[in-house]
Amino acid sequence: MSTRFNRSGPSAAPTRASVDELENEIRHLKSALTGRAVIDQAKGVLMRHFGVDAETAFQVLVRWSSHTNHRVSALALEVNGAASQGADAVAVLVRDVHRRRGEDHQVSGP
């Protein structure tokens, strides 16, 4: 079945509601893509910092999110911001997140 609008009959033109719905969906998809890129970049930072693979780096973000009550995308932005300031800033952020989780700040692993 074609996804194009049927050009004949009473439903020849899309309704305002359907256009609004599609525009809203496009906005959400663009936002999701942007968020995914931020998360992927943060995974790379954590992969380098901890010496882990991509899946483990993502699980670190998810675990941090769960324990700190912050969205994964918000934590990813923090990681990326720290990375732009250098490896020491990433280490400080990791210690800070561990503190937020109520862990000993000397924890060196993910």
From TrEMBL:
Pfam families named in the record: ANTAR
**Which residue intervals define the domain ANTAR in the entry?**
19-80
Note the InterPro entries from the entry: ANTAR, CheY-like_superfamily, WH-like_DNA-bd_sf
UniProt GO molecular function: RNA binding
Report the protein name in the record: ANTAR domain-containing protein
Which species does the entry assign this protein to? Nocardioides anomalus
